[in-house]
Amino acid sequence: MSAFDLKSLDECLEKHLPAAELKEVKRILYGVEEDLTLELPAAATATAEQHGFEIKGYRFKAQKEQLRKSRLVRVGAIQNSIALPTDAPIEQQREGIWQKVKAMIKAAAEAGCNIVCTQEAWTMPFAFCTREKFPWCEFAEEAETGATTKMLSELAQAYNMVIIHSILERDAAHGDTIWNTAVVISNNGRFMGKHRKNHIPRVGDFNESTYYLEGNTGHPVFETEFGKLAINICYGRHHPQNWMMFGVNGAEIVFNPSATIGRLSEPLWSIEARNAAIANSYFTVPINRVGTEQFPNEYTSGDGRPAHKDFGPFYGSTYVAAPDGSRTPSLSRCNDGLLVTELDLNLCRQVKDFWGFRQTQRLPLYAESLQKATQPDFKPQVIREQ
Amino acid sequence: MSAFDLKSLDECLEKHLPAAELKEVKRILYGVEEDLTLELPAAATATAEQHGFEIKGYRFKAQKEQLRKSRLVRVGAIQNSIALPTDAPIEQQREGIWQKVKAMIKAAAEAGCNIVCTQEAWTMPFAFCTREKFPWCEFAEEAETGATTKMLSELAQAYNMVIIHSILERDAAHGDTIWNTAVVISNNGRFMGKHRKNHIPRVGDFNESTYYLEGNTGHPVFETEFGKLAINICYGRHHPQNWMMFGVNGAEIVFNPSATIGRLSEPLWSIEARNAAIANSYFTVPINRVGTEQFPNEYTSGDGRPAHKDFGPFYGSTYVAAPDGSRTPSLSRCNDGLLVTELDLNLCRQVKDFWGFRQTQRLPLYAESLQKATQPDFKPQVIREQ
């Protein structure tokens, strides 16, 4: 069995485990004690069928409170492959992906989504493996005024939906610099702001550090009509302190648009965003692309293998984790898909009251410890035998 | 099926999944591509059989380097139930647990372990649910000179083994205060130092905050003959920043002696210590007790249920996670057990070089962010629609 014969971990467990064991396994693995399935409107499933992408719906409930109403929001997470070969003209490549994803945003609207988020660098192949600046930097757009932000602003307004999209950014006003950036568009179709990827990988084929630097936008939380949102872009999910600062700034949902491949990171995928949801009492939405991308010129991977032209497969497996440690099943490992999840944002504060992780965080201790740890003459706290 | 019919998640998967699927599921769930089984000496398995506890062995390998020799160490992790009813005389209760655990330490020595760690508050029932100070505070001992430290010091010297044990501490020199403390004894049988639990729960039956306060010992790393060790006690595993500081101080193995129960934390158990291993490029060893403990007087759980006398079941499931994100299977959810794991400590730096998480950590950013976040006039970084 090759890695991609297994289309879905969840379907494999459901197929083989007897019902009673499956229930226990799901409780232990996923923190799920009841069926999370959310029935989706026929229009949404019809759109998914027509365009050939997977659609799944789940819901997380919270307790009823006396003084606060339920704050139900529906979140759409989109994973997809690119549309055209990577040597097609840039505009056609982008247009091909736009068409794919527009259908998925339409289905999200039909499914009642209030917020949608794309995968990382969604308008382009993840070409940073090549270290070629041309033509890939041509995919970069102004976050505020670029063609993709404009196109999505219309959809956001039409569908009354917050849209978060993750692109390669060109900042003309600051020396034509390139950034890895997420843009937040309000449900009125207005540009709300942007966040730049805080942690940049230097691993495997992720040669991103040769294209852009560490983000300079801090840890912004976007207060939208549908909750307080933040974006932790891709490799930033490996850094608990990055997740923590979005929590400190009040996030209720943190999206993690990503592009990551099999053996490199798949065993980490189900751990990190879920740990962040637990540690920070918020929802997390890790999103990964699918498919294998072929590039015009061969490149090497720094792992002893011969030069090659393919990058991937990206293993998809988009899911949502809740602050109580439970999580949805994943989208497939290989197909385009839309994950629709209904959240009651009240769960965040309820879990804070229950577990008390924020209350017991001792931030002053860590502010002081990190302050010391970053001094040039820092001496680690090491105890040796006397 | 009740929660405890499923004795082991791993055995359940192994029983029901076809071989090819099982291999893929283990790769995705556990990051394991080859069999980790470590063959154990007959003497160790005989001792385990004689005393009726589970024993399992696993190994994590690292790449061979040219300039550093492999640094193989064997770690023993002990999970156990108490030995006598909780209304037996204190000394007999303690002696009963000592006898149990001494046999397990003997088996650890026979299995070639260099380091052994107990579960949290190992000499006593986890009686803090009751909020009764008497007689439970009588279990507290001086970390440096208490009877249990003395007893273990002899074993440490006899077996040439570092022993870490987690106890209720009585600090007579500082006002007879009570702490939740881990003690490190060198393989020469000498007291090396202690660490006090940094984060204290206020959740469910974990009424520990009525017994002791947040630890005042920082994040010490113990430089032993068998590697740099640290201890993150129980509830501290929910706090990524706690794990991080042990990493900043250079830990290669961080033990997590715990006492935690089913529905409360089991879905978090497999996530948090493993996430810490990944984020900090070190090994983690989460250890949990087993069994249900009955107390003389009834108490309430703050969850609407009637008063009762039982606490638990503690679900065991002790495991080891490696810096590359892989992990061992768990010990059982209900039996006493010794988990023997051979580690090559060289893997820590190899993973740092590969993934670069430490390199890309941006600690100065977080030192500054936390400094600001802990000021009384802190304003979170929130962006609203203009």
TrEMBL record, chains A, B:
- Which Gene Ontology molecular function entries are recorded, alphabetically? beta-ureidopropionase activity
Positions of the CN hydrolase domain: 73-345
Please give a single GO biological process term from the UniProt record: beta-alanine biosynthetic process via 3-ureidopropionate
Enzyme Commission designation: 3.5.1.6
| Hydrolase found in the keyword field | yes
The reaction(s) catalysed by this protein are: 3-(carbamoylamino)propanoate + H2O + 2 H(+) = beta-alanine + NH4(+) + CO2; 3-(carbamoylamino)-2-methylpropanoate + H2O + 2 H(+) = (R)-3-amino-2-methylpropanoate + NH4(+) + CO2
Say if the entry is tagged with keyword Hydrolase: yes
Record key words, sorted: Hydrolase
- InterPro entries on file: Aliph_Amidase/BUP, C-N_Hydrolase, C-N_Hydrolase_sf
What is the name listed in the Swiss-Prot or TrEMBL entry for this protein?
Beta-ureidopropionase
